[in-house]
Amino acid sequence: MTSTVTATQPYSTTTAPETEVAVGMSGGVDSSTAAAVLQEQGYRVEGITLWLMKGKGQCCSEGMVDAVQVCDQLGVPHHVVDSREAFESAIVNYLVEGYAGGTTPLPCSRCNTTVKFGPMIHYARETLGIDTIATGHYARIRYAPEGDRWQLLRAIDRNKDQSYFLYDLRQQHLAHTLFPLGEWPKSETRRVAARLNLHTADKPESQDLCLVEAHGSMQSFLDRYIPPAKGEIVDLSGRVLGYHEGVHHYTIGQRKGLGIAAPQPLYVIRLDPALNRVVVGPREQATQPEAIARNVNWVSMERPDGPLRAEVQIRYRSEPVPATITPLQDDTGRLSRARIVFDEPQFGVTPGQAAVWYDGDLLLGGGLLERCIA
Hints:
This protein is α/β, with parallel strands linked by helices. The protein has 3 domains: 2-215, 3-Layer(aba) Sandwich (Rossmann fold); 228-281, Adenine nucleotide alpha hydrolases-like domains (SH3 type barrels, Roll); 287-373, Elongation Factor Tu (Ef-tu), domain 3, CATH 2.40.30.10. 25% of the residues lie in helices and 30% in strands. It is built from 8 helices and 18 strands. The protein has helices at 29-40, 59-74, 84-100, 107-126, 171-174, 186-195, 210-215, 218-225; strands at residues 2-6, 20-24, 44-51, 78-82, 133-134, 139-144, 149-154, 177-178, 231-234, 240-244, 267-272, 277-281, 287-298, 308-313, 321-328, 337-347, 354-359, 362-373. Strands 1-4-3-2-5-8 form a 6-stranded parallel beta sheet, sandwiched between helices. Strand 3, helix 2 and strand 4 (78-82) form a beta-alpha-beta unit. The model is unreliable at 1-17 (pLDDT under 50).
């Protein structure tokens, strides 16, 4: 049986038996297997699917059908939470404003915090009377009694690790969340799904970003919201090398698709939405020794009083690199920013993306890259 409600944001502090769990189900093999495995372990499972996308034929439609079929297979209730307005406000508008402003926003971490985990925990508690949620994310959670703190760790399968996108989860999220697949390689997920004959066992991998899956590409999505605006592609001296149809089509460090000819490889160095310019230059000009992160969330530890040594990851697929992180005050005096000084200058440090710092597998904290320091 499937029910539909409208998503809300806050959560309360009521508790429910730990043997009950509400599983966020996207209709993919990962969330399907997470639900099935928890049921095998003795949990009373109920499925929740967030209805995120507006319009017919969007990616959520197929996923919702698959989630319903898996819940029918498992004999568990299924609920649809209407999150379309929240997704439009928190994610679609955020992306459009960011790209139009010359940044490259990271929607997934914001979506996890504002649209998914908090609202799912609230719905599970207030509507289902269940205190714990679970998802098919590849990451791990543990409790550290010495610091009375929940900690977030990388998944065992580094090729599938999604902790980078989860850096903005708070203690109240981690304390009520399970990641059943965090200890597994993806091959084990497929094997278990096949053993249980799940409807989604052979379903292909989805895109990392649902908007890309729905629209074919990020450029196609943005072109629906941002009108073309012809501008110049210039080098560092201001010499015009070519033209573009909008700064939102470019990102820092980009080399391919510039549509210009030059005797040496050129990369996007800076986006200037005020002048509608894309500035390009040689690779060394696209490296930065330092960066500033804003909206910093200290996940697995309290904010340090001074500089901290860690390994920093500045893109989802990049390798972490050694750096020193120092908490900074924002304009209100809160220590919600951080200065990151890399041991070696880094290529393609991109405003809008996340910088996430680790101690081995332990995710210490992270924030959104605000600006680079030349």
